[in-house]
Amino acid sequence: MTESNTADRQPEEPAETTTESDVTSTSEPESGPKRRTIALDEGYQFGLGVFETMALRSGRIMMLDRHLNRLRKGAEALGIDVPSDDDLRWTLGEYLHEADLEGAASAVVKIILSEANTVITNRENPYDDWGPDRALHLGWCTTRRNERSLFTYHKTLNQGDNILEFRKAHDLGLDGAVFLNSRGEVCEATNANLFFVRDNRWYTPAVECGLLPGTVRQRVCEMHHAVEMHIRPDDLAGFDACYATNSLMGVRPVAVLGEARFSVSPYGLFGR
């Protein structure tokens, strides 16, 4: 595994600004952002909630339909009542207005739903200063992904495995790490889906292996007619290239995954 400079490889995560919740505040400051109270529901206490992290560009939330669809599916799987798409769009629109983001060049907007809370936050996109040829260096997670768990397939507030494995990778100077499932098959990275290319044909780990189907993953599958398959670490040497995808960084080349090395061809920032 090659060494890399942590400061150069890992973007800083700006603090999120929270200015919206459906829970009434117990006290309001005379000036500055409104303080909101989070209800101690099962989302806050036990992670029974869902969220979407969305890229905003030129004042517009990218792929909003796909994000809302996934948010709804996750909430329904956890038995959480969800506002209508029209209501969510209105709430997001009001938030963008109040946060002065309607004309913003770039930002990250996050919506969090639990049984008693709807919270929206924003922050800077940590990938904005990355050049299109910036390639990722990834390792392997020590934790196995549970392909039989409901939480694996939805974007829930149960993110402990992802966060702890990401921190381990960060400490090693890497951009992230990749989970294997209980059968030793490749699943996904700590914050991204994966694609592998061989002879110009695109392949991606099958959803049933245990992964969160990302919004950008869905789009790339459509564009490249990607084939879902079961991939093991020993198979990686047979691929020419590897890409990682998520809604904030788009499509990024992967140069290193464990002991595997890939040729790097910039794909460009998806959706720009």
UniProtKB/TrEMBL annotation:
Keyword Flavoprotein: no
GO molecular function, one term: transaminase activity
UniProt KW keywords: Aminotransferase, Transferase
Low complexity bias locations: 16-30
Family: Belongs to the class-IV pyridoxal-phosphate-dependent aminotransferase family.
PANTHER family in alphabetical order: AMINO-ACID AMINOTRANSFERASE (PTHR42743), AMINODEOXYCHORISMATE LYASE (PTHR42743:SF11)
Record-given protein name: Aminotransferase, class IV
